[in-house]
């Protein structure tokens, strides 16, 4: 009996040892395949190198210095005057309807009324391109953008029906981008024409220079730049509500995760437009670090960074490496800083409007 019990105990220990070895082997295999999976996540085929790098757990000591050098070199290369013209055909495309025309950077502006009647518009079109290229690091567009201006609603509708049948005619402005063709931006003249031109020009330029621009950042930048130059940081109608929300006791920033999941314009309501604008305002104005994060993010949307893959694949990868990851890496306490930014912005606005120097108000 004792011998049998001893034998059974040996068998029990043997089984337990087998299971221990099996468990250890499984753990090793799990770690190995986990390592392989992590490695494959950073395969050279992924077209978002900047953001993929931001997802790595280890941050090389010189990462920020290297990225700063990259951004500095790009900003040095970016023209502070009118962007260069490459070998684009900047001839008018719609002379039948629009006899007046002028080339402004990558934009060919055509109209059915003298352009001198739109005071300051030409300078604003040039300045907007410069701001996107030199200020935010958006690459120069390699496509022509046609900006078509109409003196009245009748000629505006007639043009759309002639060249883009089926497109909506009940909007004061319309941007159409057909595959393989330059984008066409159409705006009819009314009291908001210049605002509409600024807003839609941002869409046109971003989608001519970048690829698969997420809807929220597309609209956030458009809402930011639709305000006249010199007033963008202080006069947007969204500012009062955003500032009020930031002063509440339980203030917190709007969800970036929710915004980054949006894929269609019809998902954008007034709340989404306001929150997209607010994040854009924070990124541009809070500090050089937040502005650098925005520039890095836009840089990952350049066509050369997404070469060789489909739009569906690029969008899928973009969802897996959103702007939020860059903020978590470079501005870890970005949520608190977002609240701080808008809580203190009212004072900066008062100083700005009173003409006091920016240093006195702490404006960035």
What would you say about this model in short?
This protein is of the alpha/beta class. The protein has helices at 2-41, 49-54, 63-77, 121-135, 153-163, 193-209, 215-225, 239-246, 256-260, 270-285, 288-299, 311-320, 323-330, 334-343, 345-354, 358-361, and strands at 100-104, 107-111, 145-150, 173-176, 183-188.
Question: What portion of the residues fall into strands of 2 or more residues?
Answer: 5-15%
Quote the distance from N terminus to C terminus: 87 Å
Q: Please indicate the count of domains.
A: 2
Question: Using only CA atoms, what is the Rg?
Answer: 27 Å
What does this entry look like structurally?
The protein folds into two domains: 44-63 and 211-364, no CATH class; 78-209, Glutaredoxin (3-Layer(aba) Sandwich). The protein is of the alpha/beta class and 364 residues long. It has 16 helices and five strands. Mean pLDDT is 75; it is low at 21-82 and 358-364. It starts with a helix and ends with a helix.
């Amino acid at each position: 009996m004792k011998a049998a019990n001893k034998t059974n105990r040996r068998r029990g220990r043997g089984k337990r040892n087998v299971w221990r070895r099996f468990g250890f082997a499984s753990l090793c295999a799990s770690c190995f395949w986990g390592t392989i999976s992590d490695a494959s996540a950073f395969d050279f085929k992924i077209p978002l190198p900047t953001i993929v790098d931001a997802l790595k757990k280890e941050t090389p000591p010189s990462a920020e210095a290297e990225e700063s050098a990259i951004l500095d070199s790009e900003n040095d290369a970016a023209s502070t005057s009118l962007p260069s013209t490459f070998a684009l055909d900047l001839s008018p495309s719609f002379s039948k309807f629009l006899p007046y025309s002028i080339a402004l950077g990558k934009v060919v502006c055509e109209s059915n009324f003298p352009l001198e009647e739109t005071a300051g518009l030409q300078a604003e079109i040039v300045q907007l391109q410069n701001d996107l290229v030199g200020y935010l690091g958006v690459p120069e567009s390699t496509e022509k953008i046609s900006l078509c201006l109409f003196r009245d609603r009748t000629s505006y509708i007639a043009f759309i029906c002639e060249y883009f049948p089926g497109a909506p005619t009940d909007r004061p402005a319309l941007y159409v981008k057909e595959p393989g063709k330059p984008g066409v931006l159409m705006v009819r003249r009314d009291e908001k024409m210049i605002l509409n031109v600024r807003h839609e020009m941002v869409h046109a330029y971003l989608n001519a220079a970048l690829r698969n621009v997420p809807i929220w950042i597309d609209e956030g930048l458009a809402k930011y730049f639709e305000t006249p130059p010199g007033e963008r940081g202080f006069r947007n109608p969204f500012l009062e509500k955003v500032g009020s929300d930031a002063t509440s006791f339980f203030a917190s920033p709007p969800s970036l995760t929710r915004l980054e999941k949006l894929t269609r314009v019809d998902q954008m309501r007034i709340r989404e437009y306001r929150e997209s604008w607010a994040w854009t305002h924070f990124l541009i104005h809070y500090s050089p670090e937040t502005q650098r994060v925005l520039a890095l993010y836009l840089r990952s949307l350049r066509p050369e960074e997404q070469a060789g893959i489909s739009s569906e694949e690029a969008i899928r990868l973009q969802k897996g490496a959103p702007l939020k990851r860059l903020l978590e890496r470079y501005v870890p306490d970005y949520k608190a800083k977002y609240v701080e930014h808008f809580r203190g912005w009212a004072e900066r606005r008062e100083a700005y409007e009173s003409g006091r120097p920016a240093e006195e108000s702490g404006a960035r």
